[in-house]
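Posting here for the record, re: NDP.
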Amino acid sequence: MTDRYCVFGNPISHSKSPVIHAAFAEQTGEAIDYSAIEAPLDDFAGAWHRFMAEGGRGANVTVPFKEQAFALCDTLSDRALRAGAVNTLVVGADQDSTHGDTTDGVGLVRDLFHHDVVLKGRRILVLGAGGAVRGVLEPLLAAGPASVLVVNRTAAKAAALAADFQDLGTIQGGGFEAATGQFDLVVNGTSASLAGELPPLPETLFAPGATAYDMMYGAEPTVFLRWASGLGAMPVDGLGMLVEQAAESFLLWRGKRPLTESVKYGLRLDLQTK
Ligand code: NDP
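Prediction output follows.
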C-alpha cells in the first residue's frame, strides 16, 4: 500500500504542500500519497489519530495547529522542545506513537544559504516574536552570528523570547524602537505584510550589502521587501523557506533529501502566472 502523508491546517485549501511533496516524490522515486486535510479547530488530536488509524505515516502541521500538535507528541526533537511547536509529525514503527519535530528554522537557514547569505559573524535583526520567530531562533544562533536582536510590536514578548534563547548566543529583545544601528540581515517574521503594513523602522537599518528576508511570499513583493530594496538591501521572500522546510520533513519521513531549486522555480512560475 502507498504510504500516506498529509498537511493539517484550517483553512488549508491554499496550501502548496501537496504540490511540493508530489514533486519531491517524483524526483526521488518514492511512492507516497500526500493530501491536505482541514482539521476541526477544537479537535486536532482526533483528526491526527484518525489519520494514523487509517495507516497515515506522517504529517505537516500548519496554522493554527502547531501548538496542539506539540502537545500530543510522545517524543519531541530538541529543536521542537525549544520552539514549543511542531510542524512535522512522524508515526513510530509501532504505528501507534507520534514523534514531533519542527523544520521551519532549518528551512529558513537553508534558504539563506542558497541565496549565499553569510550568517557567521553578522548582525541579525529579527522582526516579530510569534510562533514563526520562536521556531527559527535556534538554527539562526547556531550559525554563529555576532548578535541577534529581536524586536516586536509587543516589546515584552521579544524580551521574553530573547531570555529563553540566551544560552545559545548573543541575543537581545525589545520594541521596534530598539532597532538602532545597522544590520547585515533583517528577517521579517511578523504577519504585518499580510495586512500590507510595514513595522515602524528607521531607513538607516541596512548595512551595505544587507539582505532583507520576509517569511511571507506572494505574487508581488511584500511592502517590507519593496521598502528594503528601495534602501539598497537584497530582497528575498519566504517561498524558499516553505520549500526547504518541506524538504526537511520529507527527509525525516523517507530518509532522502530532495533537491529544492527546481521545485522553488516551478512554484514561482505558478505564482506569477495566476
Ligand atoms: P503569529 O501570529 O504567531 O505572530 C505574529 C507576529 O506578527 C507577532 O509578533 C505580532 O506582534 C506581529 N504582528 C502582527 N501584525 C503586526 C503589525 N501590523 N505590525 C507589526 N507587527 C505585527 O504568526 P507566525 O509567527 O506563525 O507567522 C508570522 C509570519 O510568518 C506569517 O506571515 C506567516 O505566513 C509567516 N510564515 C512563513 C513560513 C514559511 O515557510 N515561509 C513558515 C511560518 C510562518 P504582537 O506580538 O505584538 O502581536
